[in-house]
Amino acid sequence: MNGPSAVIGCHRHRLVETLTDAQLPFPVTAMTSTAPGASDDLDLPDGDCWVKRGDVHAQEAADVQRCSHREVWQAIEGFRLRGVARVAVQQHIEGPVLKFYGVSNGSLFHAFREDGRAVDGDTVDMPGLRTLAFAAARAVGLHVFGGDAVVASRSRPMLVDLNDWPSFAPVRDAAAIAIAELAQASIMQRSTR
To answer: How far apart are CA 143 and CA 138, in angstroms?
Structure first.
């Protein structure tokens, strides 16, 4: 369902550029090489940071690390020693973390807290979160997507990650139907051309 360019567009170094260019709410994020000395002049955002694998999404727990300023360079060195050539250093945003899943035709959008609890209107403006998620998916070219947002304030969720094929675990049955319908509509559209 997601074309190769959309899948590649989810690689973190491309995603940061795309979401920044689209002017979507996204934390200050700097990409840097893990080569010795390459990050010496890195301008760190205020407060804690997240150091994340800069090529693809997290493959293991060590690929996303929350760090104080003094821990950033140690984390970058740890990535280098594991063979990761580039990292993203992202500003930490305080607030509840939400996960979401969607299908581009709008037939499915599901959001929940990181701990699995339901999201209510007191936590986040759900139409605003939905608008943000779909705008990010369009910017990357995704038809089937998932991601993470932090609710810095109820009316302004901030996207922190987007991916091309999430698990859809809590809504797998509904997602299967929505994705199948999207695929069928795409096939029908192609056959009428």
So the answer is: 8
State what percent of residues in the chain have pLDDT above 70: 99
The pLDDT value recorded for residue 116 is 86
Q: Token pair 């809504």 is at which residue?
A: 171
What digits encode the pLDDT tens for the residues 78-119? 999 999 999 999 999 999 999 999 999 999 999 999 888 888
Cα separation, 88 vs 55, in Å, equals 9
**Does residue 182 register a pLDDT over 90?**
yes
- Tell me the C-alpha distance between 82 and 80, whole Å: 5
- Identify any residues that bridge with 67 across adjacent strands, giving them in sequence order: 49
| CB 139 within 8 Å of CB 179 | no
- Which token pair is 187? 């096939």
d(CA 96, CA 150): 6
CA distance 54 to 31: 7
Closest CA to 99 of 109, 112, 108: 112
Dihedral (Cα; 68, 61, 128, 95), 10-degree rounding: -40
